[in-house]
Design a protein that fits this description.
globular; two-stranded antiparallel sheet; alpha+beta; 4-stranded mixed β-sheet; serine/threonine-protein kinase; kinase activity
Length: 111
């Protein structure tokens, strides 16, 4: 899980460079880091931690395809998440696709 999210963070850095070259692109979604924590005295010795997002929580893309997601197409943040997904897919020649993007619409923070 940590490797997947941190890989997406590396791609958003490259995407940010490309998007900044587009005049008036605006805010770019951010993928927050996730951390693996070792808890040796616990029954479950490993856990993942990520920043708590406070505010209106929105799913911009879902991996199961069972949910209708109007926020994806009807919001700027949702459209930018879709653009990022397409950019990753295109730039990895179809080898990677970022899915299950969700976060705070107002702050453009994504997990």
């Amino acid at each position: 899980e940590c490797q997947v999210q941190n890989t997406a963070r590396e791609y958003i850095k490259a995407y940010t460079s490309a998007a900044k070259s587009v005049e008036a692109f605006g805010d770019i979604p951010e993928i927050i880091p996730i951390y693996l924590v070792h808890r040796p005295s616990n029954n479950i010795p490993y856990a993942t931690l990520e920043e708590e997002l406070i505010g209106d929580f929105v799913k911009y893309s879902v991996k199961d395809g069972k949910e209708i997601n109007v926020m994806r197409r009807d919001s700027e943040a949702g459209q930018k998440c879709c653009a990022f997904q397409h950019w990753v897919y295109h730039n990895t020649e179809g080898n990677l696709l970022v899915t299950d993007m969700q976060g705070q619409q107002s702050l453009q923070r994504t997990v």
